[in-house]
């Protein structure tokens, strides 16, 4: 929900149609009046004395229990507001936002007119919150609460209600909720002209659902505890009826839900004495509505009474962070492939002394590869807090065994997902039985008249774009996000090798570069490229890397999991011709559900990447000497030891 929508909301609040404002007041009051009239016409209302006797029969311990259940309910509502603040990125997430949310809900649920009263209360208690943003928070919490409540009502109608005729309604509500979840994942953003609406992430929706279930269940338990002992209504019987009656009350927006709540409960529990149910509801309104409203009124009149409770406390794990744009990625870094953030919308994020390449998606915050600089010790706690502030899951994607082992020691879950094909250009030779297939492919390319040239200066971008277009026409949409796509500014920062035949370009390959390694990014060949063209491109790149004293060249990774053989046979076979060293790569996340969500999100983005945007000109922050081959061998040996350690622990 972007700034544009916020500004328009602000304008609509100031210049709204007077007739619509009047209807917001008239409709809730009309719903309350109509329900109370209909209720009075159906049953004989108990006298005040009868009501008082029924309320007096409730044991004192039940009143205490109802008070405790009310506290649990409002505690969960405060957590609910925290999720909303994180979704809207107000910067006010924390205890101050949760307490303000609890007070705002206590006030608005009693006086009714939820959007108006809730927005006013939040704005009053959080001075840094604009009226438009307060309205957004109120609308967001209201709509998502209705969705969660609809799911509970659907389950109640299907599982507990004796009315078979309404089973279809329960199924419809559940299907609608599931469709909402699917929509939030497949289409995380919806564009309406100039307004972009962002769905809550699955991580946020799971949190919202959890807190809503706790809230509604605790409130229903408070009501059950305050029913007279001889009502004969069990908790299992009351809760489904309460869920449905509450749904009617929320939709009516009547003050305190008065009228729809009573009518709904008495109708759904028609086999029981309505007088006893009404007495329980009155007791419930005293404990769950009146007392919280009294407290909220005091704090709304004198917000200063809250003192430090509303002050923003900085998060220690995020106390020293810095955002840097992707085009400032340093030339001196362990993994050249991190330059993919120049295209996929990622950025550089520094947590104290540790810098990583970070990709924020609607569902996740993905740290790509190993840290660019600094230790990994404090990275894991910082990533958890950073992603939590976005209502997102987090993971380390395609990290080395060393970082994966550190993640496991931090109680993260790890999974081997890929193997990277690595070559040492300074030592590479074509001899030996392991490279027999490579020698045959290179001979085929030579016989076909293939010539590979290093485009060291100004590459022929128009011709390369034509090759890429032909490749996409033959193979379909190029994969993206964690893999590069052709774009002029992006590719000019890479090392490019071009295959020529009869003075025409028939293919090319590009490599990410850093002071320590090259890594294959794009390889494009036309349909008429002779056999061995790709091998000739790689062979030329190995020679060029050796001439520049590059000790490590990566042919990039291939999937390495249970089903990998079904999806990458050709890719693995091509890279195996060079007899590379296969280095394991892992994904690591704080929990298995987060790991699964990150994988699903990455799969979605790889196969459905966003449209390619022009990359900014690369301005690396440093240019340093290449590390020696001896240092790379040492790093490789450490990776082997870490991989062995992970395997033993598994």
Gap between N and C termini: 43 Å
The poorly predicted ranges are 1-16, 623-645
Shape: elongated
- Count, helices: 23
Structure class: alpha+beta
Helix content: 40-55%
Biggest sheet architecture: 12 strands, mixed
Whole-angstrom Rg: 31 Å
Number of strands: 14
Strand content: 15-25%
Q: Strand order of the main beta sheet, please?
A: 3-4-5-6-7-14-8-13-12-11-10-9
Average pLDDT score: 82
Main location: membrane
Keywords: Cell membrane, Membrane, Transferase, Transmembrane, Transmembrane helix
Pfam family, one: LPG_synthase_C
GO molecular function, one term: acyltransferase activity, transferring groups other than amino-acyl groups
């Amino acid at each position: 929900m972007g700034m544009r929508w916020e500004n328009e909301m602000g304008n609509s609040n100031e210049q709204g149609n007077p007739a619509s404002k009047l209807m917001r007041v008239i409709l809730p009051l009309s719903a309350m009046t109509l329900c109370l009239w209909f209720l009075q016409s159906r049953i004989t209302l108990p006298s005040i004395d009868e009501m008082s006797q029924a309320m007096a029969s409730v044991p004192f311990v039940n009143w205490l229990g109802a008070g405790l259940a009310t506290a649990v309910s409002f505690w969960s509502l405060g957590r609910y507001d925290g999720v909303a603040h994180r979704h809207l990125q107000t910067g006010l997430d924390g205890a101050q936002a949760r307490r303000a949310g609890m007070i705002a809900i206590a006030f608005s649920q009693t006086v009714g007119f939820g959007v108006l009263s809730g927005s006013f209360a939040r704005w009053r208690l959080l001075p840094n919150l604009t009226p438009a943003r307060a309205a957004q928070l109120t609308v967001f919490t209201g709509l998502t609460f209705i969705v969660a409540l609809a799911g509970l009502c659907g389950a109640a109608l299907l599982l507990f209600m004796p009315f078979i005729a309404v089973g279809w309604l329960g199924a419809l509500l559940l299907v609608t909720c599931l469709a909402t979840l699917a929509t939030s994942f497949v289409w995380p953003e919806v564009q309406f002209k100039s307004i972009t609406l962002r769905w809550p992430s699955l991580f946020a929706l799971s949190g919202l659902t959890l807190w809503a279930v706790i809230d509604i269940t605790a409130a229903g338990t408070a009501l059950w505890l305050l029913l007279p002992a001889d009502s004969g209504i069990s908790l299992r019987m009351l809760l489904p009826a309460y869920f449905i009656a509450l749904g009617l009350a929320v939709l009516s927006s009547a003050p305190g839900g008065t009228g729809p709540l009573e009518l709904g409960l008495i109708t759904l529990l028609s086999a029981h004495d309505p007088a006893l149910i009404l007495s329980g509801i009155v007791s419930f309104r005293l404990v769950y509505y009146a007392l919280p409203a009294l407290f909220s009124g005091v704090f709304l009149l004198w917000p200063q009474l809250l003192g430090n409770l509303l002050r923003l406390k900085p998060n220690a794990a995020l106390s020293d962070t810095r955002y840097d744009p992707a085009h400032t990625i340093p030339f001196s870094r362990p993994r050249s492939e991190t330059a993919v953030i120049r295209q996929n919308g990622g950025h550089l994020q520094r947590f104290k002394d540790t810098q990583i390449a970070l990709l924020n998606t609607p569902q996740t915050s993905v740290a790509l590869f190993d840290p660019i600089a600094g230790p990994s010790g404090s990275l894991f706690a910082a990533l958890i807090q950073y992603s939590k502030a976005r209502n997102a899951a987090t993971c380390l994607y395609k990290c080395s065994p060393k970082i994966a082992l550190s993640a496991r020691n931090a109680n993260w879950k790890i999974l081997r997902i890929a193997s990277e094909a690595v070559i040492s250009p300074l030592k590479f030779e074509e001899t030996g039985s392991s490279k027999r297939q490579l020698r045959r492919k290179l001979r085929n390319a030579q016989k076909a008249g293939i010539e590979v040239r290093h485009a060291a200066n100004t590459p022929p971008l128009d011709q390369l774009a034509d090759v890429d277009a032909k490749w996409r026409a033959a193979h379909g949409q190029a994969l993206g996000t964690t893999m590069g796509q052709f774009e002029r500014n992006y590719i000019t920062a890479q090392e490019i090798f071009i295959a020529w035949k009869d003075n025409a370009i028939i293919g090319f390959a590009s490599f990410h570069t850093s002071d320590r390694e090259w890594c294959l990014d794009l390889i494009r060949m036309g349909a008429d490229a002779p056999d061995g063209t790709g091998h000739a491109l790689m062979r030329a790149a190995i020679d060029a890397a050796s001439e520049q004293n590059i000790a490590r060249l990566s042919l990039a990774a291939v999937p390495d999991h249970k089903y990998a053989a079904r999806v990458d046979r050709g890719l693995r076979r091509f890279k195996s011709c060079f007899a590379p060293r296969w280095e394991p790569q892992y994904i690591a996340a704080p929990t298995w559900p987060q790991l699964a969500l990150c994988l699903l999100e990455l799969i979605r983005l790889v196969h459905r990447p966003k449209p390619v945007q022009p990359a900014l000109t690369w301005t690396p922050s440093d240019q340093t000497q290449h590390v020696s081959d001896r240092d790379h061998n040492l790093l490789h040996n450490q990776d082997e030891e870490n991989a062995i350690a992970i395997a033993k622990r598994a």
